[in-house]
Structure formats: structure tokens, C-alpha cells
Amino acid sequence: QVQLSESGGGVVQPGGSLTLSCVISGDIFSIESLGWYRQVPGKQRELVASVTRGGTKNYADSVKGRFTISRDRAKNMVYLQMSSLKPEDTAVYYCKLGGLRRGELWETYYWGRGTQVTVTV
Q1: Model confidence at 54: pLDDT above 90
Q2: Is the distance from CB of 76 to CB of 21 less than 8 angstroms?
């Protein structure tokens, strides 16, 4: 069973920086995509950034130029470096993995439990 565990959230002032980390554990045949999503109460969870197995990265328009997603294959980690944070970045941030289980041809998705990021003066 694959498990994702996020860390690195906290309280930061506008303009500040944080780096979120997600550790991946368990058995998965192939990781096809990794992503960071965020959610605020009353709103749908939204994509922040993602990276495919081939290294293609995608960012929400609202975070382009400020956030960077990266992956460390050796450590089974995915990171989200956030800078120039704004109050509207306040949310619970979730790590998501899309992967193939051995013998299967369709992606299975896994989510972490999230880490709170609060940007406030």
C-alpha cells in the first residue's frame, strides 16, 4: 500500500518562503505523476503543481514564477518550494501520486493527509 506524508507547512508572513516535502512509501510499480494540490474550506481542491514521469512540469497560473516542484527519485520525495507567498496561498496542501500497480494498466491515485500553510501578517 502506497502512503504519502507531507510536512513543512506552517505560518509565514507575506513575501516569505516555505518548502513542503512529501515522502513516498510503499510498493508501486511505476510512478506516472506527482503533484501538489491545495484546498481551502468551501472550495474545491485545486492543482498547484505537477511533474510527470518524464519530467514535464505544470503549474497553476496563480503560482507560476513563485513555486517550484521537484522530485528526488533516490529519496522517494517530492518537494514544493514556495516563495513570495501571498495570503491567498493559505490552504491545506496535499501531495498526490498517480501510479501503476504491478500487472495493471490504469493509474491509481494516492493522497497524503495534507499540511496547513497559513500566510498572514
Answers
A1: yes
A2: no
**117: pLDDT strictly greater than 90:** yes
Q: φ, ψ for residue 15 (rounded to 5)?
A: 90, -10
DSSP track, 8-59: --EEE-TT--EEEEEEEES--SEEEEEEEEEE-TTS--EEEEEEETT--EEE
**pLDDT of 1 strictly over 90:** no
β 77-82/18-25 pair status: antiparallel
CA distance 65 to 89: 14
- In terms of DSSP bridges, do strands 46-52 and 91-100 run parallel, antiparallel, or are they unpaired? unpaired
